[in-house]
Amino acid sequence: MKKILIIGGGASGMTAAIAAARAGASVTVLEHMDRVGKKILSTGNGKCNYMNRKQGVRFYRGGNPAFVQPVLRQFGFSETAAFFRELGIYPRERNGCFYPASGQASSVLDALRMELRRLKVQVLTGCEITAVKRNGNGFLAKTGKTAVRADCCIFACGGLAFPKSGSDGSAFPFIRQMGHTFVEVVPALVQLKAGQAFLKAAAGVRTDASVKLYVERQMVCEDRGEVQLTEFGISGIPVFQVSRYAAKAFLDKKHVQAALDFVPFLSGEELQRELTGRFGRRDGKTAEEALNGLFSKKLIPILLKQNGILPKEPAAAVSERTLKELCRYAKNVRVELSDTKGFAAAQVSAGGVDTGEIHAETMESALVPGLYFAGEVVDVDGMCGGYNLQWAWSSGYVAGMHAAMNHSGSK
Ligand SMILES: Cc1cc2nc3c(=O)[nH]c(=O)nc-3n(C[C@H](O)[C@H](O)[C@H](O)COP(=O)(O)OP(=O)(O)OC[C@H]3O[C@@H](n4cnc5c(N)ncnc54)[C@H](O)[C@@H]3O)c2cc1C
Question: At what angle do helices 77-86 and 387-406 cross, to 10 degrees?
Protein backbone atom coordinates (compact mmCIF):
# COMPACT_ATOMS: atom_id res chain seq x y z
CA MET A 1 0.00 0.00 0.00
CA LYS A 2 1.36 3.39 -0.96
CA LYS A 3 2.32 5.55 2.02
CA ILE A 4 1.68 9.27 1.86
CA LEU A 5 2.98 11.80 4.36
CA ILE A 6 1.31 15.20 4.59
CA ILE A 7 2.96 18.12 6.37
CA GLY A 8 0.19 20.38 7.69
CA GLY A 9 -3.42 19.59 8.56
CA GLY A 10 -5.08 22.72 7.22
CA ALA A 11 -7.63 23.05 4.43
CA SER A 12 -5.32 21.77 1.70
CA GLY A 13 -3.65 19.08 3.83
CA MET A 14 -6.95 17.53 4.94
CA THR A 15 -8.29 17.53 1.37
CA ALA A 16 -5.06 15.96 0.10
CA ALA A 17 -5.34 13.31 2.81
CA ILE A 18 -8.94 12.51 1.83
CA ALA A 19 -8.07 12.28 -1.87
CA ALA A 20 -5.06 10.06 -1.24
CA ALA A 21 -6.92 7.78 1.18
CA ARG A 22 -9.87 7.47 -1.21
CA ALA A 23 -7.38 6.39 -3.87
CA GLY A 24 -6.27 3.59 -1.56
CA ALA A 25 -3.16 5.05 0.08
CA SER A 26 -2.17 4.84 3.73
CA VAL A 27 -1.98 8.46 4.86
CA THR A 28 -0.32 10.20 7.80
CA VAL A 29 -0.87 13.91 8.50
CA LEU A 30 1.62 15.70 10.74
CA GLU A 31 0.20 18.85 12.31
CA HIS A 32 2.12 20.88 14.85
CA MET A 33 -0.91 22.58 16.41
CA ASP A 34 -3.02 20.78 18.99
CA ARG A 35 -5.75 20.20 16.40
CA VAL A 36 -6.18 20.29 12.62
CA GLY A 37 -7.85 23.02 10.57
CA LYS A 38 -7.72 25.87 13.10
CA LYS A 39 -7.70 28.55 10.41
CA ILE A 40 -10.90 27.24 8.84
CA LEU A 41 -12.77 28.28 12.02
CA SER A 42 -11.87 31.94 11.40
CA THR A 43 -12.80 32.00 7.73
CA GLY A 44 -15.62 34.15 6.40
CA ASN A 45 -16.07 35.76 9.85
CA GLY A 46 -16.71 32.33 11.32
CA LYS A 47 -19.15 31.39 8.54
CA CYS A 48 -16.59 30.00 6.00
CA ASN A 49 -16.98 31.25 2.46
CA TYR A 50 -15.72 27.96 1.06
CA MET A 51 -16.12 28.56 -2.69
CA ASN A 52 -17.61 30.84 -5.33
CA ARG A 53 -19.85 30.24 -8.32
CA LYS A 54 -17.80 32.67 -10.42
CA GLN A 55 -14.66 30.88 -11.48
CA GLY A 56 -11.65 31.68 -13.62
CA VAL A 57 -7.97 32.53 -13.70
CA ARG A 58 -8.88 36.20 -13.24
CA PHE A 59 -9.56 35.57 -9.54
CA TYR A 60 -6.01 34.34 -8.91
CA ARG A 61 -2.69 36.12 -8.61
CA GLY A 62 0.94 35.02 -8.41
CA GLY A 63 3.98 34.69 -10.68
CA ASN A 64 1.87 32.68 -13.15
CA PRO A 65 -1.87 32.85 -12.44
CA ALA A 66 -2.59 30.42 -15.32
CA PHE A 67 -0.89 27.76 -13.18
CA VAL A 68 -4.25 27.21 -11.43
CA GLN A 69 -6.01 26.14 -14.65
CA PRO A 70 -5.00 22.46 -14.90
CA VAL A 71 -5.74 22.09 -11.18
CA LEU A 72 -9.19 23.67 -11.40
CA ARG A 73 -9.98 21.62 -14.51
CA GLN A 74 -9.53 18.46 -12.43
CA PHE A 75 -11.13 19.68 -9.20
CA GLY A 76 -13.02 22.92 -9.77
CA PHE A 77 -16.43 24.34 -8.97
CA SER A 78 -18.62 21.28 -9.60
CA GLU A 79 -16.19 18.79 -8.04
CA THR A 80 -15.81 20.97 -4.92
CA ALA A 81 -19.57 21.49 -4.64
CA ALA A 82 -20.16 17.73 -4.94
CA PHE A 83 -17.32 16.96 -2.51
CA PHE A 84 -18.81 19.12 0.25
CA ARG A 85 -22.38 18.08 -0.50
CA GLU A 86 -21.32 14.46 -0.06
CA LEU A 87 -19.69 15.35 3.26
CA GLY A 88 -23.00 16.80 4.41
CA ILE A 89 -22.39 20.49 3.82
CA TYR A 90 -25.63 21.95 2.49
CA PRO A 91 -24.71 25.08 0.50
CA ARG A 92 -26.19 28.54 0.94
CA GLU A 93 -25.24 30.98 -1.80
CA ARG A 94 -24.98 34.75 -1.41
CA ASN A 95 -23.86 36.79 -4.44
CA GLY A 96 -22.01 33.74 -5.76
CA CYS A 97 -20.27 33.05 -2.43
CA PHE A 98 -20.94 29.62 -0.88
CA TYR A 99 -21.37 29.13 2.88
CA PRO A 100 -22.54 26.09 4.83
CA ALA A 101 -26.28 26.32 5.62
CA SER A 102 -25.39 25.95 9.30
CA GLY A 103 -23.72 29.38 9.09
CA GLN A 104 -20.80 27.86 10.99
CA ALA A 105 -17.27 27.33 9.74
CA SER A 106 -16.92 24.58 12.34
CA SER A 107 -19.35 22.45 10.26
CA VAL A 108 -16.88 22.46 7.38
CA LEU A 109 -14.02 21.48 9.65
CA ASP A 110 -16.10 18.77 11.33
CA ALA A 111 -17.14 17.36 7.94
CA LEU A 112 -13.49 17.06 6.90
CA ARG A 113 -12.49 15.53 10.24
CA MET A 114 -15.27 12.94 10.05
CA GLU A 115 -14.12 11.95 6.57
CA LEU A 116 -10.51 11.64 7.74
CA ARG A 117 -11.76 9.36 10.52
CA ARG A 118 -13.89 7.27 8.13
CA LEU A 119 -10.91 6.81 5.83
CA LYS A 120 -8.64 5.90 8.77
CA VAL A 121 -6.17 8.67 8.03
CA GLN A 122 -3.58 8.81 10.79
CA VAL A 123 -3.54 12.37 12.16
CA LEU A 124 -0.69 13.23 14.52
CA THR A 125 -1.18 16.61 16.18
CA GLY A 126 1.07 18.60 18.46
CA CYS A 127 4.17 17.25 16.78
CA GLU A 128 7.21 19.40 16.19
CA ILE A 129 8.88 18.32 12.98
CA THR A 130 12.68 18.35 13.15
CA ALA A 131 13.46 16.98 9.68
CA VAL A 132 11.81 16.09 6.37
CA LYS A 133 14.16 14.62 3.80
CA ARG A 134 14.64 12.21 0.94
CA ASN A 135 15.17 8.66 2.10
CA GLY A 136 16.05 6.27 -0.75
CA ASN A 137 13.12 6.48 -3.17
CA GLY A 138 10.86 7.90 -0.50
CA PHE A 139 10.82 10.39 2.37
CA LEU A 140 11.49 10.46 6.07
CA ALA A 141 10.05 12.92 8.57
CA LYS A 142 11.23 13.11 12.15
CA THR A 143 9.38 14.64 15.05
CA GLY A 144 10.41 14.77 18.71
CA LYS A 145 8.44 11.56 19.31
CA THR A 146 8.45 9.54 16.11
CA ALA A 147 9.79 8.99 12.60
CA VAL A 148 7.46 8.58 9.62
CA ARG A 149 8.56 6.95 6.36
CA ALA A 150 6.56 7.44 3.18
CA ASP A 151 6.68 7.00 -0.58
CA CYS A 152 5.42 10.51 -1.26
CA CYS A 153 5.37 13.68 0.76
CA ILE A 154 2.94 16.58 0.36
CA PHE A 155 3.79 19.96 1.85
CA ALA A 156 0.49 21.61 2.81
CA CYS A 157 1.91 23.84 5.51
CA GLY A 158 0.25 27.10 4.44
CA GLY A 159 1.89 30.50 4.01
CA LEU A 160 2.71 33.09 6.66
CA ALA A 161 -0.69 34.71 7.18
CA PHE A 162 -2.47 34.53 10.54
CA PRO A 163 0.39 32.59 12.17
CA LYS A 164 -1.55 32.01 15.39
CA SER A 165 -3.48 29.35 13.48
CA GLY A 166 -0.23 27.46 12.85
CA SER A 167 0.97 28.72 9.46
CA ASP A 168 4.26 30.15 10.65
CA GLY A 169 6.71 29.15 7.93
CA SER A 170 8.44 26.61 10.20
CA ALA A 171 8.31 23.99 7.42
CA PHE A 172 9.82 26.28 4.77
CA PRO A 173 13.45 25.30 5.57
CA PHE A 174 12.70 21.63 4.76
CA ILE A 175 11.31 22.68 1.38
CA ARG A 176 14.36 24.84 0.68
CA GLN A 177 16.67 22.01 1.72
CA MET A 178 15.14 19.90 -1.05
CA GLY A 179 16.19 22.54 -3.57
CA HIS A 180 13.02 24.59 -4.01
CA THR A 181 12.98 28.37 -4.19
CA PHE A 182 10.39 30.75 -2.78
CA VAL A 183 8.96 33.84 -4.36
CA GLU A 184 9.18 36.35 -1.49
CA VAL A 185 6.19 35.88 0.83
CA VAL A 186 4.23 39.03 1.72
CA PRO A 187 0.90 39.71 3.47
CA ALA A 188 -2.15 39.84 1.19
CA LEU A 189 -5.87 40.51 1.77
CA VAL A 190 -4.79 42.86 4.51
CA GLN A 191 -5.39 46.40 5.78
CA LEU A 192 -3.03 49.18 4.68
CA LYS A 193 -1.35 51.72 6.94
CA ALA A 194 -1.32 55.45 6.25
CA GLY A 195 -0.18 58.34 8.38
CA GLN A 196 -2.50 61.15 7.26
CA ALA A 197 -4.19 63.09 10.04
CA PHE A 198 -7.58 63.24 8.32
CA LEU A 199 -7.87 59.45 8.56
CA LYS A 200 -7.73 59.60 12.34
CA ALA A 201 -10.54 62.16 12.32
CA ALA A 202 -12.55 59.94 9.95
CA ALA A 203 -11.92 56.69 11.85
CA GLY A 204 -15.05 54.58 11.83
CA VAL A 205 -16.36 55.77 8.45
CA ARG A 206 -17.61 52.92 6.24
CA THR A 207 -18.63 54.03 2.81
CA ASP A 208 -18.96 52.88 -0.77
CA ALA A 209 -15.77 53.99 -2.52
CA SER A 210 -13.42 52.96 -5.24
CA VAL A 211 -9.76 52.40 -4.43
CA LYS A 212 -7.08 52.87 -7.07
CA LEU A 213 -3.60 51.73 -6.12
CA TYR A 214 -0.64 53.67 -7.52
CA VAL A 215 2.91 52.35 -7.39
CA GLU A 216 5.56 54.91 -8.42
CA ARG A 217 2.60 57.01 -9.66
CA GLN A 218 1.40 54.28 -12.06
CA MET A 219 -2.04 52.84 -11.43
CA VAL A 220 -1.71 49.09 -10.92
CA CYS A 221 -5.21 48.02 -9.90
CA GLU A 222 -8.62 49.22 -8.80
CA ASP A 223 -11.49 47.82 -6.77
CA ARG A 224 -14.79 49.10 -5.44
CA GLY A 225 -16.89 48.32 -2.40
CA GLU A 226 -17.22 49.27 1.25
CA VAL A 227 -14.06 51.07 2.37
CA GLN A 228 -13.37 51.60 6.07
CA LEU A 229 -11.30 54.50 7.32
CA THR A 230 -9.48 53.63 10.51
CA GLU A 231 -7.06 55.04 13.07
CA PHE A 232 -4.15 53.40 11.26
CA GLY A 233 -5.20 53.70 7.60
CA ILE A 234 -7.65 52.03 5.25
CA SER A 235 -9.49 48.71 5.34
CA GLY A 236 -12.44 46.90 3.77
CA ILE A 237 -12.75 44.42 0.93
CA PRO A 238 -11.59 46.73 -1.89
CA VAL A 239 -8.49 47.57 0.16
CA PHE A 240 -7.87 43.85 0.75
CA GLN A 241 -8.15 43.17 -2.96
CA VAL A 242 -5.41 45.67 -3.88
CA SER A 243 -3.22 45.04 -0.83
CA ARG A 244 -0.99 42.29 -2.24
CA TYR A 245 0.27 44.69 -4.92
CA ALA A 246 1.00 47.27 -2.23
CA ALA A 247 2.84 44.65 -0.14
CA LYS A 248 5.03 43.71 -3.10
CA ALA A 249 5.80 47.37 -3.76
CA PHE A 250 6.70 48.02 -0.08
CA LEU A 251 9.14 45.13 -0.32
CA ASP A 252 10.87 46.94 -3.19
CA LYS A 253 10.77 50.23 -1.24
CA LYS A 254 8.55 51.84 -3.88
CA HIS A 255 6.24 54.81 -3.44
CA VAL A 256 2.69 53.56 -2.85
CA GLN A 257 -0.44 55.68 -2.86
CA ALA A 258 -4.16 55.00 -2.91
CA ALA A 259 -6.68 57.27 -4.60
CA LEU A 260 -10.12 57.03 -2.98
CA ASP A 261 -13.21 58.06 -4.89
CA PHE A 262 -15.96 58.66 -2.34
CA VAL A 263 -18.58 59.14 -5.05
CA PRO A 264 -17.93 56.23 -7.41
CA PHE A 265 -21.59 56.14 -8.44
CA LEU A 266 -21.38 59.63 -10.07
CA SER A 267 -19.05 60.85 -12.79
CA GLY A 268 -17.06 64.04 -12.13
CA GLU A 269 -19.55 66.04 -14.19
CA GLU A 270 -22.55 64.53 -12.44
CA LEU A 271 -21.06 65.29 -9.04
CA GLN A 272 -20.26 68.83 -10.10
CA ARG A 273 -23.90 69.34 -11.17
CA GLU A 274 -25.11 67.79 -7.90
CA LEU A 275 -22.93 70.09 -5.81
CA THR A 276 -23.87 73.18 -7.78
CA GLY A 277 -27.54 72.32 -7.24
CA ARG A 278 -27.17 71.68 -3.51
CA PHE A 279 -25.05 74.76 -2.80
CA GLY A 280 -26.96 77.09 -5.12
CA ARG A 281 -30.42 76.52 -3.65
CA ARG A 282 -30.38 79.51 -1.28
CA ASP A 283 -32.47 77.54 1.20
CA GLY A 284 -30.56 78.74 4.24
CA LYS A 285 -28.50 75.58 4.65
CA THR A 286 -24.93 75.58 5.90
CA ALA A 287 -22.17 73.94 3.87
CA GLU A 288 -22.27 70.78 5.99
CA GLU A 289 -26.06 70.60 5.72
CA ALA A 290 -25.82 70.91 1.94
CA LEU A 291 -23.80 67.70 1.80
CA ASN A 292 -26.17 65.72 4.03
CA GLY A 293 -27.29 62.51 2.37
CA LEU A 294 -24.48 62.50 -0.17
CA PHE A 295 -21.53 61.63 2.06
CA SER A 296 -21.15 59.76 5.33
CA LYS A 297 -21.77 62.25 8.18
CA LYS A 298 -18.27 61.89 9.63
CA LEU A 299 -16.71 62.48 6.25
CA ILE A 300 -18.44 65.80 5.57
CA PRO A 301 -16.40 68.07 7.92
CA ILE A 302 -13.22 66.46 6.65
CA LEU A 303 -14.05 67.01 2.98
CA LEU A 304 -15.00 70.62 3.76
CA LYS A 305 -11.89 71.31 5.84
CA GLN A 306 -9.55 69.88 3.20
CA ASN A 307 -11.07 72.40 0.77
CA GLY A 308 -11.00 75.41 3.09
CA ILE A 309 -14.78 75.48 3.61
CA LEU A 310 -16.16 76.12 7.11
CA PRO A 311 -18.90 73.61 8.02
CA LYS A 312 -21.21 76.34 9.35
CA GLU A 313 -20.63 78.77 6.50
CA PRO A 314 -23.75 79.45 4.37
CA ALA A 315 -23.78 77.02 1.45
CA ALA A 316 -24.72 79.80 -0.95
CA ALA A 317 -21.52 81.68 -0.05
CA VAL A 318 -19.24 78.92 -1.35
CA SER A 319 -17.82 79.88 -4.72
CA GLU A 320 -18.23 77.78 -7.87
CA ARG A 321 -14.42 77.45 -8.01
CA THR A 322 -14.27 76.03 -4.48
CA LEU A 323 -17.07 73.61 -5.35
CA LYS A 324 -15.05 72.42 -8.36
CA GLU A 325 -12.11 71.76 -6.04
CA LEU A 326 -14.37 69.92 -3.58
CA CYS A 327 -15.69 67.81 -6.45
CA ARG A 328 -12.18 66.96 -7.69
CA TYR A 329 -11.06 66.17 -4.15
CA ALA A 330 -14.00 63.92 -3.23
CA LYS A 331 -13.35 61.84 -6.32
CA ASN A 332 -9.62 61.57 -5.80
CA VAL A 333 -8.50 61.65 -2.17
CA ARG A 334 -4.84 60.69 -2.19
CA VAL A 335 -3.62 58.57 0.71
CA GLU A 336 0.10 57.96 1.19
CA LEU A 337 0.54 54.33 2.21
CA SER A 338 3.43 53.25 4.39
CA ASP A 339 2.97 49.52 5.02
CA THR A 340 0.49 46.68 5.42
CA LYS A 341 -0.86 45.61 8.82
CA GLY A 342 1.41 42.58 8.55
CA PHE A 343 1.02 38.82 8.55
CA ALA A 344 -0.81 38.73 11.88
CA ALA A 345 -3.74 40.65 10.36
CA ALA A 346 -3.55 39.17 6.84
CA GLN A 347 -6.05 36.61 5.56
CA VAL A 348 -3.53 35.11 3.15
CA SER A 349 0.03 35.54 2.04
CA ALA A 350 1.21 36.10 -1.53
CA GLY A 351 4.38 34.40 -2.77
CA GLY A 352 5.57 30.92 -1.90
CA VAL A 353 7.12 27.97 -3.72
CA ASP A 354 7.87 29.07 -7.28
CA THR A 355 5.23 27.57 -9.59
CA GLY A 356 7.94 27.16 -12.26
CA GLU A 357 9.27 24.30 -10.10
CA ILE A 358 5.92 22.44 -9.85
CA HIS A 359 4.00 20.42 -12.47
CA ALA A 360 0.58 22.07 -12.58
CA GLU A 361 -1.15 18.88 -13.80
CA THR A 362 -0.20 16.93 -10.66
CA MET A 363 1.20 19.45 -8.12
CA GLU A 364 4.34 17.28 -8.06
CA SER A 365 7.71 18.93 -7.71
CA ALA A 366 9.63 19.27 -10.97
CA LEU A 367 12.82 18.88 -8.94
CA VAL A 368 12.14 16.02 -6.50
CA PRO A 369 10.05 13.05 -7.66
CA GLY A 370 7.40 12.11 -5.14
CA LEU A 371 7.34 15.53 -3.50
CA TYR A 372 4.08 17.47 -3.83
CA PHE A 373 2.70 20.84 -2.77
CA ALA A 374 -0.80 22.08 -1.96
CA GLY A 375 -2.45 25.30 -0.85
CA GLU A 376 -1.04 28.61 0.19
CA VAL A 377 2.57 27.44 0.42
CA VAL A 378 2.57 27.70 -3.39
CA ASP A 379 2.96 31.08 -5.13
CA VAL A 380 -0.77 31.42 -5.81
CA ASP A 381 -3.10 33.79 -3.96
CA GLY A 382 -6.76 34.32 -4.64
CA MET A 383 -9.06 37.29 -4.35
CA CYS A 384 -11.61 37.68 -1.55
CA GLY A 385 -14.73 35.61 -2.16
CA GLY A 386 -13.81 31.99 -1.44
CA TYR A 387 -10.92 31.71 -3.90
CA ASN A 388 -8.22 30.92 -1.35
CA LEU A 389 -10.12 28.02 0.12
CA GLN A 390 -11.01 26.94 -3.42
CA TRP A 391 -7.29 26.83 -4.21
CA ALA A 392 -6.62 24.88 -1.01
CA TRP A 393 -9.33 22.27 -1.76
CA SER A 394 -8.44 22.01 -5.46
CA SER A 395 -4.67 21.83 -5.17
CA GLY A 396 -5.02 19.56 -2.14
CA TYR A 397 -7.27 17.11 -3.92
CA VAL A 398 -5.13 17.06 -7.06
CA ALA A 399 -1.89 16.59 -5.09
CA GLY A 400 -3.38 13.83 -2.91
CA MET A 401 -4.89 11.96 -5.84
CA HIS A 402 -1.73 12.04 -7.95
CA ALA A 403 0.54 11.24 -5.03
CA ALA A 404 -1.54 8.15 -4.32
CA MET A 405 -1.86 6.97 -7.91
CA ASN A 406 1.00 8.10 -10.05
CA HIS A 407 4.21 8.01 -8.13
CA SER A 408 6.52 5.18 -9.09
CA GLY A 409 8.69 5.26 -5.95
CA SER A 410 9.08 2.48 -3.37
CA LYS A 411 5.96 0.57 -2.34
C1 LIG B 1 -9.28 35.42 9.24
C2 LIG B 1 -9.26 34.67 7.92
C3 LIG B 1 -10.42 34.57 7.17
C4 LIG B 1 -10.41 33.89 5.95
N5 LIG B 1 -11.58 33.74 5.27
C6 LIG B 1 -11.58 33.07 4.09
C7 LIG B 1 -12.80 32.81 3.40
O8 LIG B 1 -13.90 33.10 3.89
N9 LIG B 1 -12.73 32.19 2.19
C10 LIG B 1 -11.53 31.79 1.63
O11 LIG B 1 -11.53 31.25 0.53
N12 LIG B 1 -10.37 31.96 2.30
C13 LIG B 1 -10.36 32.56 3.51
N14 LIG B 1 -9.19 32.70 4.21
C15 LIG B 1 -7.95 32.12 3.62
C16 LIG B 1 -7.90 30.60 3.81
O17 LIG B 1 -8.26 30.27 5.14
C18 LIG B 1 -6.50 30.06 3.51
O19 LIG B 1 -6.09 30.49 2.24
C20 LIG B 1 -6.47 28.54 3.56
O21 LIG B 1 -6.82 28.10 4.85
C22 LIG B 1 -5.10 28.00 3.19
O23 LIG B 1 -5.10 26.62 3.37
P24 LIG B 1 -3.72 25.84 3.55
O25 LIG B 1 -4.05 24.43 3.82
O26 LIG B 1 -2.82 26.13 2.41
O27 LIG B 1 -3.02 26.51 4.82
P28 LIG B 1 -3.53 26.60 6.32
O29 LIG B 1 -4.99 26.56 6.40
O30 LIG B 1 -2.80 27.76 6.88
O31 LIG B 1 -2.98 25.26 6.97
C32 LIG B 1 -1.62 24.97 7.12
C33 LIG B 1 -1.48 23.97 8.25
O34 LIG B 1 -0.13 23.53 8.31
C35 LIG B 1 0.27 23.49 9.67
N36 LIG B 1 1.74 23.64 9.73
C37 LIG B 1 2.48 24.71 9.35
N38 LIG B 1 3.79 24.48 9.57
C39 LIG B 1 3.86 23.23 10.11
C40 LIG B 1 4.94 22.43 10.55
N41 LIG B 1 6.20 22.86 10.52
N42 LIG B 1 4.66 21.20 11.04
C43 LIG B 1 3.38 20.74 11.09
N44 LIG B 1 2.31 21.45 10.70
C45 LIG B 1 2.57 22.68 10.19
C46 LIG B 1 -0.48 24.66 10.30
O47 LIG B 1 -0.55 24.53 11.69
C48 LIG B 1 -1.82 24.58 9.60
O49 LIG B 1 -2.71 23.73 10.28
C50 LIG B 1 -9.19 33.34 5.44
C51 LIG B 1 -8.04 33.44 6.23
C52 LIG B 1 -8.06 34.07 7.45
C53 LIG B 1 -6.80 34.15 8.27
Answer: 80
